[in-house]
Amino acid sequence: MQDMKMEDIHGEFREYVLTYYDGSSRKVLVTDVESPYPEGRLIVSRTDPEGIITHVNQSFIDMSGYSREELIGAPHYILRHPDMPPVAFKDLWDTLARGEKWQGIVKNLRRDGGFYWVKATVISNIRNGKVVGYTSVRRKPSRQRVAECERLYPTLF
Amino acid sequence: MTTHVFTVSPDFTPDHLSGWFIFNTWLQKTLDAHFHLQLYDDFHSQRAATLADKIDLIYANPFDAPMLVREKGFKPLARFASVTDEAIIAVNAESPYLKVEDLKPGVKLATTEDPDVHMMGMIMLEPADLDTSTVEIIECDSYVLVAKQLIKQTADAGIFLVEAFEDLSSVIRRQLRILVRSQIQVVHHSLMIGPHIMEYREKLLDALLTMQDSEKGRGVLEALGCPKWEYVDDEEMEFMIDLMDTLML
Known about the structure:
heterodimer, A: alpha+beta, Beta-Lactamase, five-stranded antiparallel β-sheet, two-stranded antiparallel ribbon, 4 helices, 7 strands, B: alpha/beta, D-Maltodextrin-Binding Protein, domain 2, 2 domains, five-stranded mixed β-sheet
């Protein structure tokens, strides 16, 4: 996946290099600008079993800042924010592997370097007994839960 | 001739009650089969009938879709075109609550038995850290009664189906204020066919999707308040069920 570009970033930024579970790396540029969660909406995406995005709704596009064309076919970790501890995503995959739903508070990275917090729920899409993909639905989290995660997540690296 | 049982989600608007009887007559003529329209007073008794395999055709609330498809072998047919289920959280216009986060644990919440609307409403209360354990639920038999609870200030907030809120008289609506309105766009009622009459699936689907082409069909659609029927394929239904599944946690 391509590195983030300076010309796309709004505001002062910090630079990180993230290494993902598949061994690939990406330079990400991060600002302190938070986008508020859109009232009354759900942010929905689906991936194939390898975590490649196959469907996004308009709210996903609006909040991520990417176009639909940029998102479809991209790995879901395009949203990975460096403040999210890798252990959270390990827990996600371990939970799904047990056939259970995963839920957690997640800080997502936008194309412009900003971020937004979500309460995410992920489930396996099972058809004829086989996992054919995953659906992730995000809703507005409470600020209290976000504040708890802002304190907790830095301790999990 | 065997009589099959057709039922409608108990949250249909009273204005369309006769429409469902007209639809049932159309159904019998179209399929040349006997259908009895069985209406239930509440979701609980309708679910019990479904679980006891007493239902053959259902215009189902999305909340019941997981059970119908994954446990009872129902298949989707069609939905009202461009109609989705959305919820509103409203308060008394004079109340101090200006946003959902102003509602605090212990608030009195007026709601109906309508399961998908109630679920969407509860999701919109989550940003205030409210759930069924931190609100006092006042269950009402209709959305008009939810509105009355707010106007009398015996409830702090109420959950409405958007259409039901918009159908309230202007006098009532002026006394209420919307805090948040959902824009989920993928949750909808669907007509679903049971495993025992699956032989009618294609014939019924063809007839539903061309209903608007005849004068008689248009009359039935008008009585239902349905612009036209739109096909729901198995994967679209599975997607909605997966989505509902994420919301039930």
